Amino acid sequence: MFIDLHNHSLYSYDSNRNMEDIVLEAIEKRVDILGFSDHLDFNEGDPGNEYYNGCHQLKEFDSLKNKYSSKITLHLGIEASLEKSYEEKILNVFDKFPFSYKIMSAHFVKGTVISDWIKEIEKDADNIDDADYSPYFASLKSISQFKAFDILGHIDYYKKYSKFLRHDIIFEKHKKDYTEILKRIIGEGKTIEINSSGLRHKCREQFPSDSILALYKELGGRTVSTGSDSHSRGDVAFHFNEVYNIIENFDFKVYKPNKEKKCFP
Ligand SMILES: [Zn+2]
Ligand SMILES: [Zn+2]
Predict the structure, then answer these.
(1) Nearest one of 204, 147, 155 to 179, comparing CA atoms
(2) CA–centroid distance, residue 216 to ligand 1 (Å)
(3) What CA–CA distance (Å, rounded) separates 165 from 45?
(4) Closest ligand by atom to 78 CA
(5) CA of 37 to the centre of ligand 2 (A)
(6) In the chain, what are the domains?
(7) pLDDT of res. 46
(8) Residue range 27-37: average pLDDT?
(9) 191 touches 224 (CB < 8 A)
């Protein structure tokens, strides 16, 4: 039984998959619970800024939920980027639509999209120790302080864009930051996700790494959410056998959205 709560449809600026294709792929791949988590972004100048159209998506979601109810359980979630400057806008959308769960992710650091930010900090670095990742952790901390979400997304996401591979060095250097963030998540009854998309990228490792998962467990973390971060055909439940093996090894429980909300209350 697989649960994939991290999927992007054409309601995200960076995916052009229609929702029904995603549902059909999920059924093929023995996914029992599938969630849509399209991007909610308000970063000015970014292509994702105010792109999300919840009204249209809800209508489509409702009809798919009914059509496939005997084959798969569908949830409507959201993946929000967050910076202090647009916290209000995020809360407004959260109030307006009945999302079953909310993923919060660090996609920007000090207003710059993370891919560009990493390039900038690593541009003159000959090894991973020369680059300063602290601002990323400041962003992640600020996100973890936000109250209204359920899942902290892909927490070591810098691995996706880094030209270096020894990310264990970053973990050791920022263990205190990770500890603070994970303690807060656990203390507030939230969860982190294991996001398999890292296995499609150069780092060839899920987000987050085993070391971070071990720390999470040590601090009392018991539950993880599972997501493939799919944007294209073939991505749904990507390498989930591997992800579920990790979960079994750590003896984690898999997060299930518990709010079976109606779309139009
Ligand atoms: Zn993301
Ligand atoms: Zn995503």
Answers:
(1) 155
(2) 20
(3) 30
(4) 2
(5) 7
(6) 2-254 (3.20.20.140)
(7) 85
(8) 98
(9) yes
Please give the distance, rounded to the nearest whole angstrom, from the Cα atom of residue 154 to the centre of ligand 2. 8
Q: Could you give the CA distance from residue 2 to residue 237 in angstroms, rounded to a whole number? A: 8
CA of 103 to the centre of ligand 2 (A): 9
| 150 CA from centroid of ligand 1 (Å) | 14
pLDDT digits (tens, 9 = 90+) for 40-91: 999 888 889 999 999 999 999 999 999 999 999 999 999 999 888 899 999 9
Handedness of CA 3, 61, 234, 230 (dihedral sign): negative
Cβ neighbourhood burial of 225 (10 Å; 0-12, 13-18, 19+): buried
Please give the distance of CA 255 from its chain centroid, rounded to a whole number: 13
Interval between CA 81 and ligand 2 midpoint (Å): 10
- The pair of structure tokens assigned to 107 is 């996609």
- Is the whole-model pTM more than 0.85? yes
